[in-house]
Write a structure and sequence with these properties.
By secondary structure, this protein is of the alpha+beta class. It is 31% helix and 33% strand. A three-stranded antiparallel β-sheet has the order 1-2-3, with no helix packed on it. Strands 4-5-6 form a three-stranded mixed β-sheet, covered by helices on one side. The chain is elongated, with a radius of gyration of 18 Å.
Amino acid sequence: MECVVKWVGDASFLAETGSGHIVVMDGAPEAGGRNLAPRPMEMLLVGAGGCTAFDVMLILKRGRHPVSDCQVKIQADRADTDPKVFTRLHYHYVVTGAGLKASAVERAIHMSAEKYCSASIMLGMTAEVSHTWEIVDPSVIQTQ
C-alpha cells in the first residue's frame, strides 16, 4: 500500500492513493488553512469508521442476516500536548434491518473490533476504545 501526499499551498495537501484516488486535506484557519477539506486527523477517524462499517456489513451479509444499512458515529478525544494522539474513541453503530437479531449485530461488531478492523485496532493502541450499538427495524412501527 502506498500514497503520495503533495503540498498545494497554505495548509492544503492533495493525496493520491495507490489505487488512484484523490483526497484533499486542509488545516484549520488558525493553523494557516482555509478550511476547505477535512483535517488529516479527521481522515484517520473516517478511515477507522469506514473500516469497521465495512466489516460489520460484510459479516452480517455473509451470515445472511437481513441488514440494509449501517452507520457508525465516532466520538474521539485527543491528548492535550504533542503528539496529540487519540486517547479515547467511542464507536456507536446504528444497524438497520427487518428482524435483525441483536446477537448477530453484537457478534459482527465484536469480530470487527477484535480481529478484522486494522484501522480501529491500530488506533486502539493509544486510545481507550468503547462500543455501543442499536438496531433500527423498519418493520416495527414506533409510536410515542
